[in-house]
């Protein structure tokens, strides 16, 4: 079993990985650990493992690492395992994956497999699979501007701090979107495969990554006060019911403006982008 470990994911959570590895090796599982050295390295490692005939690659990190491994596994039958070590770990919450080391090890060794349908974003910089969501507009601006050091020092609190900074300088230009060919406009847009956002906060009730299709969440109210209200509603689990928050199911979403974009919590360049389901599902090991 190849474990792709991102040493910069999360904060001081690597001990979980060592415990998982202890349990797995005690059970006689043959392990190989590869540490990532740069952004995109997990994709290269996963792709090479597929070429070598691997049947399972484990992402030890957060959503960004899982997405990178998923990009490397795309189009293959290789299974994706997860050791959640990230800051938000949205996909792990979404699929109800275990976090306790013994339970993680048991899932990796004996767990069932579920198929998830990743999304794919196509733009001038190429194409990129995402496992949880793509944001365009304000939340992506926060992700683009967030210094890595701040994230590692403060974890989730770093996002709150960066959000406050961006509230006063983001221009909140309107974003034009085509949702299955229908023209819409919003201040920010999140295209999601799941119902959680930024951890276990509800964003798109009824959306499930094991199903094909996308949910487009449009934030129609613009400006810093609206963004602040949406941000405050998130931890209170009120976001889906906020005025100006609209949810539309779709198979194809086009973001027309050159706005900042993020996928699974990592910068994904600027629009325009076309988003749909990936051509094939990915098999994820669950408990
Ligand atoms: N050695 C490295 N140095 C710098 N960045 C790296 C390295 N290895 C991987 N990365 C990058 O780190 C980024 C963040 O990783 P990841 O998303 O897994 O952690 P996280 O942001 O803490 O978790 P979450 O996305 O769940 O909040 C990934 O986009 C990956 O490309």
From TrEMBL:
DAGKc domain residues: 1-129
Keywords of this entry: ATP-binding, Kinase, Nucleotide-binding, Transferase
Keyword Kinase annotated: yes
Transmembrane segments: none
One GO MF term: ATP binding
A Pfam family recorded for this sequence: DAGK_cat
Thylakoid recorded as keyword: no
PANTHER family from the UniProt entry: SPHINGOSINE KINASE, SPHINGOSINE KINASE RELATED PROTEIN
Annotated protein name in UniProt: Diacylglycerol kinase family lipid kinase
UniProt organism field: Rhodovastum atsumiense
